[in-house]
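Quality-control log, excerpt.
Job 1 of 2 completed; input and output follow.
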Amino acid sequence: MKKRDYYLTVISLILLVIFLYFADRYMDAYIVRILNLCAIYTVLGLSMNLINGFTGLFSLGHAGFMAIGAYTTAILTLSVNAKAQNFFLEPIAAPLANVVLPFFPSLLLAGILAALAGFLIGAPALRLKGDYLAIATLGFAEIIRVIFTNTQNITNGALGLKGIPAYTNLWWSYGIAAFTVLFMVLLINSSYGRAFKAIREDEIAAESMGINLFKHKVMSFTIGAFFAGIGGGLLGNLLGTIDPAMFKFTLTFNILLIIVLGGMGSITGTVISAFVVTISQEALRFLDQPMDLGFIVIPGVAGMRMVVFSILLMLVVLFYRHGLMGTNEFSWDRLINILSFKKPLLKGGKK
């Protein structure tokens, strides 16, 4: 890394910490909640991009791994009295009734259980390809949701869990998002990351070069499931209440939307897209409400926000077929060239 790039990176991190400190102390709860969601969706987007974008697997099971993470963290952080209040139809299973752990161990255990589920699901499912793999992983995610709906003495069934401690804050969400970005950068630039990309480009060629397809696919799937569980845990402790209906296919689709919009196989694109999508969905919320323009009152139409949002996404995809960043990543040289209106350097040093 150039000395200039090192200094710019350190300055950027310091400015981010200052912004988080200011936001945590002085911004209202609504804006802080949106900022938390941006960071959480960054973690979720990166975990799915590792599987779908970098390894080239078509997985639609992310909502299931998020459900495992959210429920694990919620059950382990709920107080004994809160568990008694939630589980009034049927008492919670005896081993869990008096177990209360701090947030970080609960979050870590949530990721480990989600990774274990990812391994158990991935081992048989990853022998499939393309649409068949997508259908299999979607089926497994639905199985997890149905199991959570019917295990009354563990998850409280369809009633869900309420009164979950609000441990997720800007420091937790952005700290874990920063760690996830760093981990993904190191992983993708390692020999494992190059193997993932080789599998994405051509499985037959990768196998002929000695890459163990099954091992690397399962590894990618398991790591992605781990971070999905972490993201689900953060989301559950941010919202304060969860139920199985939250973890339907729509949630997976929202994350898939983020990685497609940002660029399949781009860490930078996923981060940018997570912020753009999350903030845009909230910024367009006024379209669902009646608007008084002075000379005319336009009645609010429920769902108009998502119609306009979908049209904007269609325009982006039409003009940026490979997403906002494609497979490119952020670099200070690229940013400086853009700000100085210079053409980016191509291979060979030509402009």
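Job 2 of 2 completed; input and output follow.
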Amino acid sequence: MPSTMSRTYAKRSLHSIVAHDLGARIVSGKLVPGDVLPTEAALSESLDVSRTALREAIKILSAKGLIESRPKTGTRVKPRSSWNLLDPDVLSWHFPDPDPAFLYALFETRLIIEPNTAAMAAVRATKEEIKAISDAYDAMESAERGTEAVYITDLEFHQAILNASANDFMKSFGMLIETALIGSFRLSSGGPAAHVQSLPDHQAVYAAISHRDPEAARTTMHKLLRRTMRQLRQQLGMSVEHDWDQIGL
């Protein structure tokens, strides 16, 4: 399965390469909100690209909410609240060294969405879609420990459930966060032992969906993600205390 990076704007053309370079600087914090970019002439020279390519790159970053250009004041980095965080490029620029808060927020988003999506799949999935979930689980079991296949098959399992929801927004959610999921799986897997330990939870989710039991599907997916989130907090050096129960997550 190709990675999200192969489907994003980045690296498809000269102006896309420039957008990738500048976007990564912004997301990584090398350029912070409020910073004014160098003049077009200076930036074009430092990046060794034409002004035309630079202007196209600026348009890309502006469309993603990262920067804004105004007459007389120049091009400025916008606040993080303005960024389109579900944009595949913006997601990919958070890696390979994502901020812990970013990863944790991603998992909270998954906890809000995926249990209900599993319940939707239990009711709506076609026989072919249930087989796709089954095949993805089998691939997880067969994945060689310590290889990229561990993360790819885990991702494919969750995407198969999103695809079985019969909801186009859920399908898009899975595609958009592919890169972020791969990165978070790498951090949260905890090595081969943790992958093996997670298999029963994944199998329980599949079983609930295949048995057409939406409440069990919701509950088992919730359990799986809660356990993964707790493990992620520990690996990120965060306190295992949380407010999930208080919030209702």
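Post-run check on job 2. The chain has twelve helices and two strands.
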